[in-house]
């Protein structure tokens, strides 16, 4: 249904555009952005950065202002605690990751995060719910296409609890990481206790460079990661994706608050636990 | 009270209709005066007048600007309803902006917030593409703000667009727009006039919080067959009227159609136009009037209009939007010895369809609203009292945003179709009483009630969007009832013959709502009924004004202050996209809060003379406060407008040449834009600041028009109208958004603000002929 946006926009864009209007600019105080996660069976990883005013153009000269590499990042499961270490990763922006090496995520546990930087302290807490399983995973050609199609995955939802899912895919030799599918965060409110089929529409690597085809194709070897999340973690991704789809769309209601689970002054982002299951499908 | 009434029971009623002698059209606002009693009255929109007088023989003078006076002698008690005809003064036969009321009406009418316009006020001004549009002139009045370029919607004293009731004769119009709002559905040639109440609203009007606008179409000429036509840049209009039976009955048929699509098709085929413009609208008004007897009149009004837009970029992609308005009413007016009654039965419908196809994927959104109802109104004049009472009932049927989608032949499950039903009714009583020579009080009360009706299914959800329970209501079951007592009062106190003070209080309630989804006003905005979740909106408004006329009523000035508190205002939740975000219940996507508006309206008007016009300035502030928006803190309403200035002027240079101009200036709309952005997993995400903390650039525009009377004779008249819309080609903002370019991998990100503007300078020619 995200296609709606693409479909409606041309109607409005029929109308002429003019160059930049003048808007009153307000001063903006940057906030700390936390992008942290812990998966079942994995080490915690946290990326820190600063937000930037909309009126600041980012280039190689000032991009360092966005990078936070002097923080003390601690993860605890209530019994054990680890201070994460900073590693450089030039494939990514920001090019630094705080990673753990001893504390591994376990299903059913609660993990707290503490970030201390420039005399300020930020905290968050998340749980790793039990992973979900696909009953089956298959590929179907899109109507009228001879090599392009979608991957489908069927799950049986647990009726006893509220479940929140997130799905990623990675094409071997093509994607250097798991990329969330379109509308990757889904709650079971529409299918609680029922069988549900996810249509995995291949997502873009990022939304500044949106691809126009959602297909997988014959010959792709696709790894699929099915995650379960708690409510606060889900709310963050649900609201982020909503914002990514609707931004600039005159057919959406204005304002879009992204729900963060970080406590502390002037902080944005998420600290989220994933219960994960991995699958692979070779499309022939 | 009974004693007082008995004491005056010897009074009798002098009543009748006053018409233009040449066309048979009623003359609303025409005044009558009985010198010996020092008593007068004015005709209503149907040209009907009545006045209570003791038995005797009187000379009654009828006068109306632009017409010769007429004097009749009557004996009271009179058994008949009089029919008065006035002959137009030949020198001012055409195209003078006539005052529609007594010369001192601005000072002496008790209704503080009544704006009354007649056809001749409307015809002269410059219009977008030359299309005469009564709503455009309404938007120039003090306290009325246009909701922006390309919109027939307007904001009255800080009220939302849906808080304005639009009546076409007796029927409600839910979306009075053509061409995405660039024109209104009211065909200028068929319109007789319009009345708008923005304060001091009499209790016989209700159902909306902020204003009531009634557009009346005129009755046909009952003397001879007449016609009128115009050809403009975008549309052609034709009107035919004539007697069904002379002096007894008349008909009027007016039609209008745009023909851009016809040209565009040809140009597209010739290769001049890259893309075909497959758009048109049309509308049709059909009116019948018949005098059943000297005391009984029947009028029938019907309107049908539609817009149809198709957009194809390629064979695999297409988009279509269509919407339709239809209204109909039958009204029977009976003039008894004392009592005036009007029974009307009315219906109205609005439907909108939006469809899109991309390769094999298709979806449709359909919304509609249909009303049927009746109104029975009584009027009685008793010496110092002018009483009106009655009841009205409407059955609403709605289908808000029914979405269907399909991929090839497979239809996708997007929920069951939804049909909602509701009853709305009101009982009202109003008395306009002359307290003294200086003071007049209009006081009334409206008892309004509402029921949402089954069949209906309500889903009860918890915070995690899990369905806890489902409640099913059967057919005709009253699911939710609401009632409101709406007192209204307006007092006028004359300080001198040319100055007065007026104060008013209005309580209003509204049971049908429309929340605008985005900053752009679109036909996609839907109406929803009150329910257990959506409670009726209510408002309290206080206003007070000082009115002063100068130079023997040649110049009218006023200053009006108002304060309005609005409860249970409706907005969409954040991040809702039509057809994309749908809760289980139709009312899941809304949030509710309070609104406050206060301001002052200044107006200087010169209604008559070769040079005439009006300057209106409104200084106001409008805020909203919602628990679920902006962290519960107050924020500026989208249409909070500190300054709003309108200037309109006409100059009759010679009988052949008339010049007119319109200038508008308004503070830019408050706007919600991101203040900052951040990166999460390679995605750039926007952070929004305080809601509506940005302002669009100010809106201003100058329009000019020249009318040349090419031919004027008793048989026919013709005019050339040359108009220029947006003379200095101001690029007014229609829509503003941010666009981000670049890539984080290359360590570059550039953001630009984009503005969409609609109309540059647009000159237009129109040729109009009357015969």
What's the total helix number of chain B?
A: 5
How much strand of chain B?
over 45%
State the share of residues found in helices of chain A, binned by percent. under 10%
The whole-angstrom Rg of chain A is 20 Å
Per CATH, the architecture of the domain at 134-258 and 275-282 in chain A is: Sandwich
Helix content of chain B: under 10%
Give the low-confidence spans of chain A. 1-19
According to CATH, what is the topology of the domain at 134-258 and 275-282 in chain A?
Immunoglobulin-like
Helix-strand makeup class of chain A: mainly beta
- Structure summary, number of beta strands of chain A: 18
Biggest sheet of chain A: strands, sense, closure? 8 strands, mixed
Arithmetic mean of pLDDT of chain B: 84
Work out the count of structural domains of chain B: 3
Question: What is the CA–CA distance across the termini of chain B?
Answer: 54 Å
Instruction: Kindly provide the radius of gyration of chain B, computed on alpha-carbon positions and rounded to a whole number of angstroms.
Output: 27 Å
Overall, the morphology of chain A is globular
- Give the CATH class of the largest domain in chain B: Mainly Beta
Instruction: Give the number of DSSP strands of chain B.
Output: 50
Number of helices of chain A: 2
Question: What this model shows, in words?
Answer:
Chain A: It comes from Chryseolinea serpens. Chain A: InterPro entries: DUF4249 (IPR025345). Chain A: This is DUF4249 domain-containing protein. Chain B: Keywords: Cell outer membrane, Membrane, Receptor, Transmembrane, Transmembrane beta strand, Transport. Chain A is mainly beta and 284 residues long. Chain A has a domain at 134-258 and 275-282: Immunoglobulins (Immunoglobulin-like), CATH 2.60.40.10. Chain A has helices at 3-13, 231-246; strands at 17-18, 32-39, 45-50, 52-53, 72-76, 81-83, 85-88, 96-99, 110-117, 120-127, 134-141, 148-156, 164-171, 179-187, 195-200, 216-217, 221-229, 267-282. Mean pLDDT of chain A is 83; it is low at 1-19. By secondary structure, chain B is mainly beta. Chain B contains five helices and 50 strands. The model of chain B is unreliable at 1-9 and 91-100 (pLDDT under 50). Chains A and B meet through helix 1, strand 1, strand 4, helix 2 and strand 18 of A and strand 22, strand 43, strand 44, strand 45 and strand 48 of B.
């Amino acid at each position: 249904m995200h296609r709606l946006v693409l479909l409606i926009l041309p109607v409005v864009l029929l109308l002429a555009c003019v160059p930049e209007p003048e808007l009153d600019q307000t001063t903006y105080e940057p906030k700390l952005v936390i992008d942290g996660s812990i998966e079942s069976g994995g080490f915690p990883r946290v990326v820190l950065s600063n937000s930037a005013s909309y009126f600041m153009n980012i280039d190689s000269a000032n991009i360092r202002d966005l990078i936070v590499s002097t923080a003390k990042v601690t993860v605890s499961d209530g019994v054990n605690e680890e201070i994460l270490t900073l590693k450089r990763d030039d494939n990514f922006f920001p090019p630094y990751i705080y990673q753990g090496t001893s504390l591994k995520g376990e299903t059913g546990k609660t993990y707290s995060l503490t970030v201390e930087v420039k005399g300020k302290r930020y905290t968050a807490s998340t749980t790793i719910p039990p992973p979900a399983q696909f009953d089956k995973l298959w590929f179907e050609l899109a109507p009228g296409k001879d090599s392009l199609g979608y991957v489908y995955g069927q799950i049986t939802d647990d009726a006893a609890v509220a479940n929140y899912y997130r799905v990623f895919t990675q094409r071997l030799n093509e994607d250097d990481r798991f990329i969330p599918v379109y509308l990757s965060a889904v709650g079971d409110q529409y299918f609680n206790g029922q069988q549900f089929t996810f249509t995995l529409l291949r997502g873009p690597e990022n939304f500044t460079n949106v691809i126009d085809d959602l297909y997988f194709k014959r010959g792709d070897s696709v790894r699929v990661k099915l995650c379960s999340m708690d409510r606060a973690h889900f709310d963050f991704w649900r609201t982020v994706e909503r914002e990514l789809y609707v931004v600039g769309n005159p057919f959406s209601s204005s304002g879009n608050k992204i729900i963060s689970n970080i406590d502390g002054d002037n902080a944005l982002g998420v600290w989220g636990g994933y219960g994960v299951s991995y699958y692979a499908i070779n499309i022939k | 009270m009974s004693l007082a009434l008995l004491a005056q029971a010897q009074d009798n009623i002098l009543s009748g209709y006053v018409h233009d002698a040449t066309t048979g059209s009623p003359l609303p606002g025409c005044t009558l005066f009985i010198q010996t009693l020092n008593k007068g009255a004015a005709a209503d929109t149907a040209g009907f007048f009545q006045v209570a007088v003791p038995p005797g023989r009187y000379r009654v003078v009828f006068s109306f600007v632009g017409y010769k006076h007429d004097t009749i002698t009557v004996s009271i008690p009179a058994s008949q309803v009089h029919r008065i005809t006035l002959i137009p003064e030949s020198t001012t036969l055409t195209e003078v902006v006539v005052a529609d009321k007594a010369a001192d009406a601005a000072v002496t009418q008790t209704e503080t917030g009544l704006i009354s316009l007649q056809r001749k006020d409307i015809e002269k001004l410059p219009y977008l593409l030359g299309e005469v549009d009564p709503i455009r002139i309404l938007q120039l009045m003090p306290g009325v703000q246009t909701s922006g370029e390309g919109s027939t919607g307007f904001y009255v004293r800080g009220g939302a667009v849906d808080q304005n009731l639009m009546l076409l004769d007796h029927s409600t119009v839910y979306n009075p727009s053509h061409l995405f709002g660039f024109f209104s559905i009211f065909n200028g040639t068929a319109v007789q006039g319009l009345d708008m109440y923005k304060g001091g609203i009499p209790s016989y009007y209700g159902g909306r919080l902020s204003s009531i606008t009634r557009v009346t179409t005129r009755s046909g000429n009952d003397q001879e067959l007449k016609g009128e036509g115009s050809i403009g840049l975008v549309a052609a209009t034709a009107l035919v009227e004539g007697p069904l039976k002379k002096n007894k009955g008349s008909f009027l048929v007016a039609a209008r159609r745009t023909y851009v699509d016809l040209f565009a098709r040809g140009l597209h085929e010739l290769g001049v136009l890259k893309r075909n413009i497959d758009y048109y609208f049309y509308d049709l008004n059909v009116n019948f009037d018949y005098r059943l007897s000297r005391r009984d009149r029947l009028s029938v009004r019907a309107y049908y209009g539609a817009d149809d837009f198709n957009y194809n970029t390629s064979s695999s992609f297409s988009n279509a939007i269509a919407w339709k308005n239809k209204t109909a009413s039958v009204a029977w007016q009976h003039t008894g010895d004392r009592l005036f009654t009007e029974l009307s039965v009315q219906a109205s419908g609005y439907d909108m369809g939006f469809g899109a196809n991309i390769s094999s994927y298709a979806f449709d959104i359909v919304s509609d609203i249909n009303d049927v109802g009746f109104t029975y109104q009584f009027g009685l004049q008793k010496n110092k009292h002018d009483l009106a009472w009655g009841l009205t009932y409407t059955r609403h049927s709605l289908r808000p945003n029914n979405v269907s989608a399909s991929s090839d032949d497979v239809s996708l499950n997007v929920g069951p179709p939804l049909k909602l039903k509701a009853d709305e009714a009101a009982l009202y009583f109003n008395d306009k009483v002359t307290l003294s020579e200086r003071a007049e009080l209009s006081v009334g009360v409206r008892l309004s009630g509402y029921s949402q009706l089954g069949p209906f299914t309500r889903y009860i959800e918890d915070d995690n969007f899990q369905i806890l329970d489902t409640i099913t209501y059967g057919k005709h079951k009253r699911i939710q009832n609401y009632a409101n007592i709406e007192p209204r009062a307006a007092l006028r106190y004359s300080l001198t013959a040319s100055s007065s003070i007026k104060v008013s209080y209005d309580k209003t309630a509204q049971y049908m709502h429309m929340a605008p989804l985005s900053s752009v006003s679109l036909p996609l905005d839907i109406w929803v009924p009150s329910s257990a979740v959506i409670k009726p909106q209510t408002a309290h408004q206080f206003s007070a004004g000082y009115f002063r006329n100068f130079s023997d009523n040649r110049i009218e000035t006023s200053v009006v202050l108002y304060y309005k508190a609005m409860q249970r205002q409706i907005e969409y939740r954040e991040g809702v996209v039509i057809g994309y975000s749908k809760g289980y219940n139709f009312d899941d996507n809304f949030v509710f809060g309070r609104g406050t508006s206060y301001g002052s309206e200044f107006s200087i008007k010169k209604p008559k003379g070769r040079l005439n016009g009006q300057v209106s300035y409104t200084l106001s502030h409008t805020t909203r406060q919602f628990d679920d928006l902006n962290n519960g803190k107050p924020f500026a309403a989208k249409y909070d407008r500190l300054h709003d200035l309108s200037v309109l002027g006409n100059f009759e240079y010679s009988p052949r040449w008339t010049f007119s101009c319109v200038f508008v200036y308004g503070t830019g709309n408050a706007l919600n834009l991101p203040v900052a952005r951040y990166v999460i997993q390679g995605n750039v995400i926007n952070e929004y600041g305080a809601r509506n903390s940005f302002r669009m650039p100010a809106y201003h525009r100058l329009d000019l028009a020249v009318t040349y009377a090419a031919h004027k004779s008793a048989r026919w008249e013709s005019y050339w109208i040359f108009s220029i819309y947006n003379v200095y080609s101001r690029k007014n903002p229609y829509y503003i958004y941010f666009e981000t370019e670049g890539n984080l991998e290359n360590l570059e990100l550039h953001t630009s603000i984009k503005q969409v503007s609609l109309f540059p300078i647009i000159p237009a020619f129109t040729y109009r002929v009357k015969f």
